[in-house]
Design brief:
alpha+beta, Glutamine Phosphoribosylpyrophosphate, subunit 1, domain 1, binds N-hydroxy-L-asparagine, single chain, 337 residues, four-stranded antiparallel beta sheet, eight-stranded mixed beta sheet, 31% helix
Length: 337
């Protein structure tokens, strides 16, 4: 079921999107342990991560295990195996992971490896570096026991071939009821469900925070294009003293404001996770109001007490929460109503 109909049809026990926004875009009391993820498919990833958290495991393990569920899901066309390729037909993956102490690892433009989140973790734990890209990242993965695989599924290959017929770049940016025609036809490549990265944040029973982010990026992007998702500070940031944030949407705009880091800094100043996300969305909207109307960006944040919140530019964003108290998918509030 696609995300939009899923939201309309289930809502998982939360108030419908019409009328007052659900108060659960900000939880009422902090929860620990807790795991939260972008989009409705985050629910399955959360469930996997929860197995670790509920057994008093480390938030970092919960993130990695959860993210691997989405990466392996070939029905998800925007993360990992089965992700839409770039315009040359290559599936290139971006991922990063970070813990509460500032340890982090990232891979960019990685081909042929089904679980970039695990390679990112290995970059973090086994190298003195933070980022490996392209061939170097692949070489590192193969040297460390990962298998080389074909990640282009028949479905995604067919979608790419269909796109090639026109290559007309007319994407749907996950904005409810709206199709975005990019003013720059060479830049925003199009597909349905074009922007569905998974960003995950977790707080474990011992108060350790971690986060991860993994994506195949924009469908039919230029070969070599990297978005915000594997960029520490942009697609993900974790600071154990404060909280963690992650993002989804048009990565270029998130990179321009180092969005997830900014969310964490707003939390450091005393803002709730929701307020912090809202402030960054507002900055993006004010910087270029015309552009902002036509793109989607969503931020998700979790503080080190277990309060969460989210905010997006456009309607249509959702996030999934799992704790001992709740397992829900929540429609995100948005700047444009
Ligand atoms: C990117 N931010 O590559 C990612 C895509 C995304 O939801 O978030 N999709 O720009």
């Amino acid at each position: 079921m696609i995300r939009r109909s899923f939201l309309k049809n289930t809502m998982l026990g939360i108030p419908a999107m019409s009328g007052a926004l659900p108060s659960c875009t900000n939880n009422k009391k902090p929860q620990k342990p807790i795991i939260i993820s972008t989009w409705d498919f985050g629910k399955a990833a959360n469930s996997e991560g929860w197995k670790t958290l509920s057994a008093n495991g480390h938030a970092l393990d919960a993130i990695e295990k959860g993210a691997r569920i989405t990466e392996a899901d070939q029905s998800n066309k925007t993360v990992g195996y089965g992700g839409y390729p770039d315009r040359d037909g290559k599936v290139t993956l971006d991922a990063c992971i970070m813990d509460e102490k500032g340890n982090c690892g990232s891979v960019m433009c990685l081909e042929h490896i089904k679980h970039p989140i695990s390679v990112a973790r290995m970059v973090m734990e086994k190298t003195p570096h933070v980022i490996l890209v392209g061939d170097g990242a692949l070489q590192f993965a193969l040297e460390n026991g990962f298998q080389k695989e074909n990640l282009l599924t028949p479905d995604s290959e067919a979608a790419w071939k269909e796109w090639l017929k026109k290559a007309n770049y007319a994407p749907v940016m996950n904005i409810e009821n709206k199709t975005y025609q990019s003013p720059d036809p060479g830049f925003f490549p199009g597909s349905i469900d074009n922007h569905d990265t998974i960003g995950m944040l977790a707080l474990d029973s011992q108060g350790r925070l971690s986060g991860g982010c993994t994506t195949s990026g924009m469908a039919f992007k230029m070969h070599g294009r990297v978005g915000d998702s594997p960029v520490i500070g942009a697609g993900l940031f974790v600071d154990g003293e404060v909280g963690a944030a992650t993002s989804t949407g048009v990565g270029e705009e998130v990179i321009r404001c180092v969005g997830s880091h900014l969310v964490v800094e707003y939390m450091r100043q005393g803002n709730s996770p929701r307020e912090a996300c809202k402030k960054v969305v507002e900055r993006i909207a004010k910087r270029d109001p015309e552009k902002a109307k036509n793109i989607q960006i969503g931020f998700l944040a979790l503080d080190n007490k277990g309060n969460y919140g989210a905010y997006a530019l456009q309607k249509g964003f959702s996030f999934a929460v799992k704790s001992a108290d709740e397992e829900i998918v929540i429609p995100g509030e948005s700047y444009f109503k």
